[in-house]
Each structure stands twice: as C-alpha cells, then as structure tokens.
Design goal:
Blueprint (H helix, E strand, L loop, with lengths): L15 H26 L4 H13 L12 H31 L1 H16 L5 E4 L3 H12 L4 E5 L2 H8 L5 E3 L5 H6 L7 E4 L4 H14 L4 E5 L5 H8 L3 E3 L1 H14 L1 H11 L6 H4 L1 E7 L11 H4 L7 E7 L5 E3 L12 E7 L14 E4 L2 E4 L1
Parallel strand pairs: 1-2, 1-4, 2-3, 4-5, 5-6
Antiparallel strand pairs: 7-10, 8-9, 8-10, 11-12
Helix pairs in contact: 1-2, 1-3, 2-3, 8-9, 10-11
Length: 363
C-alpha cells in the first residue's frame, strides 16, 4: 500500500485498520513462538509443541497432544488460549474495518496511481492543495494539462481525489515524495504552500533533484522573493501584491479592468471571441526574425502583432520591450495578435514600408 519504505505513500495514508492488522499478526506470531518454546522446555518435541499451539489457539476441539498435568503446562496453555484468541480477534477486526472503510479499493487505486505517474513526462507538479493550489489544479484540469498534486492534509487530499486521479499524500519537501511524483520527468513544479519557509525548502530540494525543471513559487512576504530566487525559483508569485494591484486598478480605471476581467474569464467574452490569442515563438537559426529589432517586425494595420515580452537566451525576461531591442537566436517572443495574422509572423512575405512607434521600416 505504501510507495516507499519510509512510509511515504502515493495513495491514501495508512489506515488505522491496517495498523491494527499488523499489530494483531505481530502479537499472534509472538504468542505462537512463546507457546512453542514453553512446550519445548517441558520436554516436548518441536512438532508436538507446534501442533499443540495451533489447536489451542484455533480451538479445533482435538485432545491434548500430551497430558497437561502440571501447573506450569496449564498456566502456559491458558496464556496461549487467552493471548492467541485476543490476537486473532484483533486482527480479524482490523480486516473487517479495512473492508468496510474501502481500504482495499484505495490500495488498488494507489497502485494504479503509481503506474500512471511512472508513464508521465513533461507534466506539472503542484505542491500544496490549499486555496491557491486547489484553484491552480482546477485551472489546469479545465484545459486538460496533466499534473500531479501533493499535500499532507488528509482532508485536502480526499477532496482532490474526488475530482483528480493523480494525488499524492505526503510532504512536498521530501525527496521520496517528489520522486514518486516524477520530478525527474516533470517540466514544471509549482510550490504554492501557505508557509514561505516551506516553499523555500521545496524549491531548494526540487532544484537539486532536477536542475532543468521550471519552478514557480508562491511568496506571501515580499522579502521572501529574493530567497526563493536564490534557491532556484524561476518565477515568484506574490498573491498579496497581485491582489492589491488588481484592487487599485478597479478603483482607478474600473471600466477597463472589468473588460480585461471579462476577456480573461470563462464568461461571455474571451480572447477567442475577439479573434485574439497569445503565442510563444522561439527564434531558430533559420528564423527571418533573428538579429532584427522589434520595431522592424511589430506592426499594426493589416497584420497586427504586439510583442509583450522577450525571454532572452540567458533566462532574463524583458517586459514591454523597446522598439530598438535586437533579437537573438534562441530568444522566445511572447506575442499577442489576431489569430489569423499570427502565422504570418516570422514568415517571409513581400516587403512593405510601415511606420510604427516613429520608426519607418520594411517588413
């Protein structure tokens, strides 16, 4: 039922019923050994001693193998009867409880979960299923993105299992738990636990286990951002700052923010209905956009694109890039534009002269 020898589980936590069964079997074995040793000390042979223990504990109704005619043998036999019966009843009770609680089905489900995770590659690992983690899981599930969620809270794990299949119960900072989640094959890890110190430790552990994984970390305290980045986080999200910015924009420019909220939500108005979409373009060595400045390719009019960010080869991100920023091979462009026009970006078309941001160029 467990995924690791140290008690880390991919399925639900070890139930109390299983602990009862293990304890009952241990006591039963101990009683059998003690009884056999006692009969051996009285001069019985090993087969006679073992047979006497068995028929005494399970009460099959056979007569004694040898006469129980001494006080010591009677005391030993009485001990075997009482302790053996008690151990058997305790073990059977644990088994019945396990069946009633559905632990057998959960055990099979945990085995299925382990096999499913073992086949996954390029997935996302969500560390923490609190309010933020649960919302993140719902968003990824809605778009069909595969993920594995981790949390220590049994209640959060059970709620998540009602909606998602791949949920692990355990400490996200534990290497065995992260390995069970397939961190060596994952592409992104999002640590969104409520405690900044825990997020720092998860980030540090994950970066050591997979240097190539993209780590997104939550930070409640603004001063934690530098620590998270130092430990290996690629991006740090500060929910408090985001919420404050959002509220301030609703105060200053409510109409514009309401429109943006409608565009970004699943309501009546979205980017698809507006004919817009985001795209990410990586500049290969053969790309006609390589070694050109943004002012040469970002135009409005018949073909409209807006380059909102550039991810440089060294990992830095340039937001709101200037028109004179020169692009290099390996850069990634985050582009917003009309879905019919985006495929034209990067294609070799007949040149035409346009003026944009005060720059006249041929594209």
């Amino acid at each position: 039922m467990t995924a690791k020898t140290d008690g880390t589980e991919v399925g639900p936590p070890i139930a109390e019923s299983v602990r009862k069964m293990l304890a009952g079997v241990s006591v039963l074995v101990g009683v059998c050994v003690a009884g056999a040793v006692g009969y051996l000390a009285a001069g019985w042979s090993l087969p006679d001693a073992m047979f006497m223990v068995v028929i005494t504990i399970f009460g099959v109704g056979y007569g004694e193998v040898r006469p129980i005619d001494t006080l010591a043998l009677r005391g030993l036999t009485g001990f075997v009867i009482v302790a053996g019966y008690g151990a058997v009843i305790y073990t059977v009770g644990g088994f019945i409880q396990m069946v009633i609680d559905g632990q057998l089905n959960r055990a099979f489900g945990a085995r299925k979960t382990r096999k499913e995770i073992a086949r996954m590659e390029g997935h996302t690992i969500i560390c923490g299923l609190g309010r933020m983690g649960a919302s993140l899981a719902a968003e990824l599930h809605a778009v069909g993105h595969r993920f594995v969620a981790i949390d220590e809270d049994p209640g959060a794990v059970e709620r998540a299992r009602e909606r998602y299949e791949l949920v692990i119960s355990g400490d996200a900072a534990d290497e065995d738990v992260l390995m069970a989640a397939g961190i060596d094959r994952a592409s992104v890890l999002a640590t969104v636990l409520s405690a900044d110190a825990t997020n720092v430790f998860v980030t540090l552990t994950a970066r050591a286990m997979n240097p190539d994984i993209t780590i997104l970390a939550r930070g409640e305290n603004r001063h934690t951002e530098s620590k998270l980045r130092t430990c290996g986080a690629d991006q740090v999200v500060l929910p408090t700052d985001i919420g404050a910015t959002r509220i301030s924009q609703l105060i200053v420019r409510p109409s514009a923010e309401e429109m943006l909220d409608s565009i970004g939500s699943s309501g009546d108005l979205d980017l698809v209905q507006l004919g817009l979409e985001f795209d990410e373009i990586e500049l290969q060595s053969s790309s006609p956009l390589a070694n050109r400045v943004i002012g040469d390719i970002e135009v409005r009019g018949a073909y409209g694109y807006l380059i909102i960010a550039v991810r440089r080869v060294d990992g830095t991100t340039v937001m709101h890039p200037r028109s004179d920023l020169r692009l290099a091979i390996g850069d990634r462009l985050i582009v917003l534009g009309y879905e019919d026009d985006l495929p034209r970006l990067g294609s070799k078309e007949p040149s035409r002269t346009v003026t944009y941001r005060g720059v006249t160029s041929e594209v």
